[in-house]
Amino acid sequence: MNSETRGDFSEIPILDVSGLYTGDPDAVAAVAETLRGYLENVGFLYVAGHQVSRADVEAVREMSKAFFALPDEEKLKLKIDKNFRGFLPFAGSTIVTSSVAKVSKPNQSESIFFMHEVAADDPGALAGKPLQGPNQWPDEAVLPGFRATIDRYVAEMSELARKLVRAISISIGMPPDSMDRYFEHPTTFLRLLHYPTQPAEEGLFGSAPHTDYGYITLLAQDNVGGLEVKNKAGDWIAAPPIPDTFVMNVGDILARWSNDQFVSTPHRVINRSGRERYSQPFFFDPSMDEMIEVLPPCLPAGTEPKYAPVLYGDYLMERIDKNYHYRKGTAAAPVAP
């Protein structure tokens, strides 16, 4: 990594990942090499050349619009539960754990969360383990085809994410399957977000400046825009929608795993477009039970890791408990930095 160029960007790069689908090791390695530079120096990129169809992306967006158009009493039937699944009403989160800004005002959005599916009789759910339980779904009579549309999309996004995990492993200097075991039972989130247009008020954001918690995020945007990424000069660089791409970014756990070889870059959303904005970030993270410690190739000889090992579930729950209003009073013990 060139420390002089790290964070020095004025636009978000685009990477064609079609080589990951070929089965050709050389093509995969070429994608991984370019990916490494983007993750080290920017932490953000547009992913092009994937095999998730435009129709499926748009189908999720249309279902999202239909859900948020429902009366509040209908949406509140699915109010977010202890397992972090369901509808989060408008202004339901304030990012108090942000490491890049002092945030005091709630995010100007409403959303609904779908995580990895866990049956009600799963041993983890029966034992009351954190975030282990079934998703909450709109009634089929109210929104026909909603669950099938979401399930299909999550399966496609998970396939893409697994290919990116392997590319990241190669980029670090490890065999492609080195990190597969951490994602045998991944922690996944599909969050459907609705951002009404917001007033020009100091300190008010659709999503306040923050870094993501997990491994990688893959975001499908509508055509409204509003996402901005912070470079090392402190400038906020627009990440406008580009058709048939996802915005990919490094989360804090990948940064920790890589000993900060990869950068978890601050970003925010401001929607002053005069139009409603809809987005659908997909978060692909390791199992809650996985211990995250610096990977050996990311630790030069004679140096100490920047981060102590941390159980991913503990790390995640501390942030969820602090940032989401409905969880106040359930905060976990602090996680070592």
From TrEMBL:
Pfam families: 2OG-FeII_Oxy (PF03171), DIOX_N (PF14226). Keywords: Ethylene biosynthesis, Iron, Metal-binding, Oxidoreductase. Its EC number is 1.13.12.19, 1.14.20.7. Its cofactor is Fe(2+). Pathway: Alkene biosynthesis; ethylene biosynthesis via 2-oxoglutarate. Residues 186-286 form the Fe2OG dioxygenase domain. Belongs to the iron/ascorbate-dependent oxidoreductase family. This is 2-oxoglutarate-dependent ethylene/succinate-forming enzyme. The lineage of its organism: Bacteria, Pseudomonadati, Pseudomonadota, Alphaproteobacteria, Hyphomicrobiales.
